[in-house]
């Protein structure tokens, strides 16, 4: 595969990530509301925020294709700041919602779709990580490789959803849905903080992972 096709592949992966997150958000928000599952509904909101991040990544691929040695531009920095603010607001919303859930003893109708969506997400995210790592290595692009590393945070959040949904399905413990939401909040806060850090620097990747200078 020549360099031109590799960049096309990288851009295709970025677009696929955006489309996948939109679809994931639609299903997670719908079933999260339908089943009254806070962790699944929160997972859907996270997917919407990842769409904003994905737009910045797609733009990054175009930039490094045109100028491999260039630094992050204003579009990417703006996308990072918007993503960071969204993650902070999301974190606050998750914490407040979890507190209400604990106080009221609310429990979801079912967590079946939480299990299904989290398993699908894990499979797709690992496939994307493999694809981005493949093209990043062949292009010797630290930016694309860093983006692949960032995608692991999505896997971790999917595992949190899987764990909380699975435990509830087995035990019917009412508080586990709120615990899962708080687990998502931890990763959300970390991603938000790192988005702002990256927006201030010329580090290579987006948010949610350690990057090289």
What do these coordinates show?
This is Cation efflux family protein. The chain has one domain (3-199): Alpha-lytic protease prodomain-like (Up-down Bundle), CATH 1.20.1510. It has 213 residues and is an all-alpha fold. Mean pLDDT is 89; it is low at 204-213. The radius of gyration is 18 Å and the shape is elongated. The chain has helices spanning 3-34, 38-66, 74-104, 112-139, 142-150, 152-171, 176-199.
Oligomeric status of the shown chains? single chain
Order of helices and strands: HHHHHHH
Number of domains: 1
In DSSP terms, counting alpha (H) and pi (I) runs of 4 or more, how many helices? 7
Biggest beta-sheet profile:
none
GO molecular function: monoatomic cation transmembrane transporter activity
Keywords: Cytoplasmic vesicle, Endosome, Membrane, Synapse, Transmembrane, Transmembrane helix, Zinc
Organism: Paludibacter jiangxiensis
Transmembrane segments: 12-32, 38-58, 79-100, 112-131, 143-167
Draw up the topology in text.
Blueprint: H1 3-34, H2 38-66, H3 74-104, H4 112-139, H5 142-150, H6 152-171, H7 176-199
Helix pairs in contact: 1-2, 1-4, 2-3, 2-7, 3-7, 4-5, 4-6, 6-7
Descriptors:
7 helices, disordered C terminus, mainly alpha, Alpha-lytic protease prodomain-like, 81% helix, 213 residues
Question: Short description, anyone?
Answer:
Residues 17-198 form the Cation efflux protein transmembrane domain. Belongs to the TMEM163 family. It contains seven helices and no strands.
